[in-house]
């Protein structure tokens, strides 16, 4: 008899325990960004963006429409017959619902944390372009210089830099000389004659045969 009396009590306690267990309601995470828009057709709509989930909720005319992000460039959300294309800051959107013409909407207010702008990759500095090497001036085809020498002579030399030769005119005679580059000037040599010429050809030392060198200066 005792067992028959306790069985209904146990069953009732089980039912009460099941009924008293609190249920956890499903909750959508708080939106990252909520924006109120005023559209060109006069409508006022609100979109709550859930960036972490890649979704959004459109509130229009008292009805809500779930949207999924389908593209990031441009930022595009779609759900059912609704398409929303937003600019990077989500301050402006183009809204298309069903067969209606697309209408543009501008933000009137916003709340929550706005999306962080995309970070552009660092731009490597452009290395400076090295200037072209200086071009050596082209020597003249011919230079004629008259000199007064320390021994009283007056001579004239015709230089041909491009051919690397010179012609010495001395005492009514011409002597052909070959050029050698001997920094900081030039040396011209010929039969029994040597001219050691400064780089600017304004001074030279002339040696002829066994005589000592004679300094000459451009006249």
UniProtKB/TrEMBL annotation:
<dbReference type="Pfam" id="PF09864">
    <property type="entry name" value="MliC"/>
</dbReference>
<dbReference type="InterPro" id="IPR036328">
    <property type="entry name" value="MliC_sf"/>
</dbReference>
<keyword id="KW-0449">Lipoprotein</keyword>
<keyword id="KW-0472">Membrane</keyword>
<feature type="compositionally biased region" description="Pro residues">
    <location>
        <begin position="114"/>
        <end position="140"/>
    </location>
</feature>
<keyword id="KW-0732">Signal</keyword>
<dbReference type="InterPro" id="IPR018660">
    <property type="entry name" value="MliC"/>
</dbReference>
<feature type="domain" description="C-type lysozyme inhibitor">
    <location>
        <begin position="147"/>
        <end position="189"/>
    </location>
</feature>
<feature type="compositionally biased region" description="Polar residues">
    <location>
        <begin position="168"/>
        <end position="182"/>
    </location>
</feature>
<feature type="region of interest" description="Disordered">
    <location>
        <begin position="168"/>
        <end position="188"/>
    </location>
</feature>
<feature type="region of interest" description="Disordered">
    <location>
        <begin position="106"/>
        <end position="145"/>
    </location>
</feature>
<protein>
    <submittedName>
        <fullName>Lysozyme inhibitor</fullName>
    </submittedName>
</protein>
<feature type="signal peptide">
    <location>
        <begin position="1"/>
        <end position="17"/>
    </location>
</feature>
<keyword id="KW-0564">Palmitate</keyword>
């Amino acid at each position: 008899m005792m067992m028959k009396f306790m069985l209904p009590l146990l069953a009732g306690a089980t039912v009460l325990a099941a009924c008293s267990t609190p249920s956890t309601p499903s909750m959508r995470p708080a939106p990252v960004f909520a924006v109120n828009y005023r559209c060109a057709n006069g409508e006022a709509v609100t979109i709550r963006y859930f960036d972490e989930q890649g979704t959004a909720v459109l509130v229009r005319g008292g009805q809500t429409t779930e949207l999924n992000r389908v593209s990031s460039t441009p930022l595009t959300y779609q759900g059912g017959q609704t398409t929303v294309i937003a600019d990077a800051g989500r301050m402006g959107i183009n809204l298309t619902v069903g067969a209606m013409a697309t209408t543009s909407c501008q933000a009137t207010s916003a709340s929550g944390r706005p999306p962080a702008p995309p970070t552009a990759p660092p731009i490597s500095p452009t290395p400076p372009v090295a200037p072209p090497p200086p071009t050596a001036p082209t020597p003249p085809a011919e230079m004629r210089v008259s000199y007064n020498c320390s021994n009283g002579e007056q001579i004239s030399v015709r230089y041909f830099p491009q051919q690397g030769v010179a012609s010495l005119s001395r005492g009514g005679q011409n002597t052909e000389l070959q050029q050698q580059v001997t920094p900081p000037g030039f040396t011209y040599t010929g039969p029994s004659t040597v001219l050691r010429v400064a780089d600017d050809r304004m001074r030279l030392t002339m040696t002829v045969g066994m005589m000592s060198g004679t300094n000459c200066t451009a006249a």
